[in-house]
């Protein structure tokens, strides 16, 4: 009895310590910031934000309008921005910045820039600080719709604070008696005509001087309290040696809503320390929902830095009114609506790992998100594909249906599936006005011929492959709800990938209008019929029927042999229609993993393909190699673009030993976990625990497994098994168990059975 009580007490002490663990200390927000257009190690900026917050903040080293707003190699900062950028290639919107200046007043971005050293910089999600070489110290802590900043000036020089309204229209009003600034900015590419970002700033120190300025002219308007126009700003002057705190918040709804956001989120905070502590509590609670143990300090830092980035996008685009009900300005029709809205995400990237991870961790949010997709359809006539914040149509595919189908089959059923299918059918049978992933360019040929011919339309084989997968998702959703009408429409396209398979060369290939193949085929040539890749990479893009793909190759043995070659061959490439080396090509060569280009999305599932061929030990070895060699928590922490959390989500879910190769099914592939133990706290109150006995960098192979005490040989887990909670026990070894995971029932879902 005493022993049992001791063990129980020990468990609860361990549990309490784990719940209060400061996991935030592992997070480095500078991960991936040592990037440039020619070579991406993440293309990130040091994000200061709460999870999925409406507004982020960041230090700015680049010029206004530069998508690479922060480069680790830069040595000066020109502002501290409110940011919303989900990718440097998409740029930012609703931007403004504050910049402290000492001595003579300097307002223009080049003039006011101050030098700094990274040893005087700290980047955490809840707290950023930097001390410039001139002695000014800046500190920032975020809330969901605002931030608390503090600027500490040297005692001997004048102390100024410069507000920059950025590149387009801004309206600013200084209110000296109230120690306040209000106004709005209006900038960005994919915004409605009436879109504005209203802001309010409240200071704790009086202004000794103030004025406005414009970037286009030379003049500073001393004593002026208002300005309205393009590229305009304002400035405040404080007493020498001032320590100035400013609370700020923003709203897309109205100035009054901005004030409400400020008072609700920051009104009770006496100082920045309180905001910082509250942010730390929010992040530690979220990070603690995936508690990993038994890894190195380096692995812990990589995991939690990635888990941080996996919980930034999609951004909340809604606010809470005076009765705490959600409302939002729609980026699709420019009107105010009740309900939830999310934005800043490109589904071509994130359907693969981020949303399957959310289906485990954030099911309530996922339910709200799925409804917001259908609300966007009502407001714009189209499903989103990449919103920033409104429709952009960048990239390819109709992957909103992947999100909807995946949520439904995994038990998130907060939306009308009939309406989702109606919206998708409209998407699949029309060409949209917003870009390549809005509607379907060449949809008539796709339905009639079974492929999109190359010629007037480019990237046609990539589109054919991704449309076939999307149609599978629609078919899955229709079958799940018993709708034979929609199931019949999309069932006939499930195998369209076969139409772009050339058995003579053994690859997916571009096809012309007359049915002939594109000439001068070379599997290492990028572009043409493919998007940011080549035939070696895109041939595997048959997520729903890897068994059928293997049969096209001649069967299981040939499938495995081609996979082996893919990962172990040379990394040479031809630039093809890109006509120059693009960063994805460079990153593939640096990875030294054959033609496997993890820095771009099309191949990120391929290491798991061995599970389908009865050789799961090769999946186990390969995913551990990818995680070990291509990820870390440093400014060179990623092997390519960290697009809206996809690259991070791939690491997080793979480090847990799972991966959703085919979203739209309820299955997660089993890989090889990094840690000896991972405890996932689910929203339903249950815990799913993954234990990996003898796990280390050498013991990457699963020797045996049990699920809740029963032998487990499958290469996949079902979402239902995870949701029920329990313990998934693995015994790891340095030698592969080649007898495990070989049976037909051990293999993950595929439409077609793989031939020997």
Automatic annotation (TrEMBL):
Cofactor(s) named in the record: Ca(2+)
Region described as Disordered: 731-756
Residue stretches making up the Glycosyl hydrolase family 92 N-terminal domain: 26-251
Any one Pfam family match given in the protein's UniProt record, by short name: Glyco_hydro_92
Gene Ontology terms, MF aspect: carbohydrate binding; peptide-N4-(N-acetyl-beta-glucosaminyl)asparagine amidase activity
Cellular-component GO terms for this entry: cytosol
NCBIfam families the record matches: aman2_put (TIGR01180)
Chain ranges of the Glycosyl hydrolase family domain: 257-733
Any one GO BP annotation for this protein: carbohydrate metabolic process
Protein name as catalogued: Alpha-1,2-mannosidase, putative
Complexes and interactors: Monomer.
Record carries keyword Metal-binding: no
This protein's UniProt keywords: Calcium, Signal
Cleaved signal peptide residues: 1-18
Keyword presence, Calcium: yes
């Amino acid at each position: 009895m005493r022993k049992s009580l001791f063990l129980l007490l020990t468990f609860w002490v361990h549990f309490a310590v784990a719940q209060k663990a400061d996991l935030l200390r592992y997070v480095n927000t500078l991960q991936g910031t040592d990037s440039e257009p020619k070579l991406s190690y993440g293309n990130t900026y040091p994000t200061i934000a709460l999870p999925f917050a409406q507004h982020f903040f960041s230090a700015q080293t680049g010029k206004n309008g530069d998508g690479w707003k922060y480069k680790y190699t830069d040595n000066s900062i020109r502002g501290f921005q409110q940011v919303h950028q989900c990718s440097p290639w998409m740029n930012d919107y609703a931007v403004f910045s504050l910049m402290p200046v000492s001595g003579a007043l300097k307002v223009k971005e080049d003039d006011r820039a101050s030098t700094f050293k990274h040893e005087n910089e700290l980047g955490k999600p809840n707290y950023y600080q930097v001390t410039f070489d001139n002695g000014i110290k800046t500190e920032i802590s975020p809330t969901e719709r605002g931030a608390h900043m503090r600027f500490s000036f040297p005692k001997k020089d004048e102390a100024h604070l410069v507000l920059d309204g950025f590149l387009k229209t801004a309206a600013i009003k200084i209110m000296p008696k109230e120690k306040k600034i209000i106004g709005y900015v209006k900038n960005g590419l994919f915004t409605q005509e009436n879109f504005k970002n209203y802001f309010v700033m409240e200071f704790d120190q009086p202004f000794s001087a103030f004025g406005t300025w414009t970037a286009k002219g030379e003049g500073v308007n001393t004593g002026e309290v208002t300005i309205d126009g393009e590229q305009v700003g304002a400035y405040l002057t404080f007493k020498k040696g001032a320590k100035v705190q400013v609370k700020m918040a923003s709203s897309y709804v109205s100035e009054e809503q901005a004030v409400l956001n400020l008072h609700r989120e920051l009104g009770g905070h006496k100082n920045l320390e309180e905001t910082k502590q509250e942010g730390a509590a929010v992040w530690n609670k979220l990070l603690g929902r995936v508690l990993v143990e038994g890894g190195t300090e380096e692995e812990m830092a990589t995991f939690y830095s990635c888990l941080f980035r996996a919980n930034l996008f999609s951004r909340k685009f809604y606010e809470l009114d005076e009765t705490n009900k959600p409302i939002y300005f729609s980026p699709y029709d420019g009107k105010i609506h009740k309900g939830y809205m999310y934005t800043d995400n490109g589904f071509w990237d994130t359907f693969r790992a981020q949303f399957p991870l959310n289906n485990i961790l954030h099911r309530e949010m996922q339910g709200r998100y799925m409804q917001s997709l259908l609300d966007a359809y009502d407001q714009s006539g189209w499903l989103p594909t990449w919103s920033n914040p409104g429709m952009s149509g960048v990239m390819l595919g109709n992957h909103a249906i992947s999100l909807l189908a995946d949520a439904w089959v995994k038990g998130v059923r907060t939306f009308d599936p009939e309406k989702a299918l109606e919206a998708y059918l409209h998407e699949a049978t029309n060409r949209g006005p917003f870009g390549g992933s809005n509607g379907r360019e060449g949809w008539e040929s796709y339905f009639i011929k079974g492929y999109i011919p190359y010629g007037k339309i480019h990237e046609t084989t990539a589109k054919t492959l991704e449309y076939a997968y999307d149609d599978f998702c629609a078919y899955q959703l229709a079958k799940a709800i018993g709708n034979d009408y929609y199931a019949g429409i999309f069932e006939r396209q499930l195998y369209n990938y076969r139409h772009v398979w050339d058995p003579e060369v053994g690859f997916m290939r571009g096809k012309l209008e007359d049915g002939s193949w594109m000439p001068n085929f070379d599997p290492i040539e990028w572009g043409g019929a493919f998007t940011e890749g080549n035939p070696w990479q895109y041939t595997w893009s048959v997520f729903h029927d890897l068994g059928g793909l293997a049969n096209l190759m001649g069967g299981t043995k040939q499938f495995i042999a081609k996979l082996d070659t893919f990962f172990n061959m040379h990394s040479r490439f031809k630039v093809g229609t890109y006509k120059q080396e693009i960063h994805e090509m460079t990153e593939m060569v640096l990875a030294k993993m054959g033609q496997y280009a993890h820095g771009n999305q099309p191949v990120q599932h391929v290491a798991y393909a061995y599970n389908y061929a009865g050789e799961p030990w090769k999946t186990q070895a390969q995913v551990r190699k990818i995680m070990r060699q291509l990820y870390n928590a440093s400014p060179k922490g990623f092997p390519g673009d960290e697009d809206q959390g996809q690259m991070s989500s791939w690491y997080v879910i793979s480090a847990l030993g799972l991966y959703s190769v085919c979203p739209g099914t309820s299955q997660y592939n089993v890989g090889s976990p990094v840690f000896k133990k991972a405890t996932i706290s689910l929203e339903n109150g249950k815990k799913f625990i993954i234990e990996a006995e003898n796990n280390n960098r050498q013991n990457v192979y699963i020797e045996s497994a049990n699920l809740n005490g029963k032998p487990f040989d499958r290469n996949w887990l079902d979402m239902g098994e995870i949701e029920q909670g329990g313990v998934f026990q693995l015994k790891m070894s340095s030698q592969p168990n080649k007898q495990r995971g070989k049976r037909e029932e051990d293999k993950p879902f595929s439409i077609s059975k793989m031939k020997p």
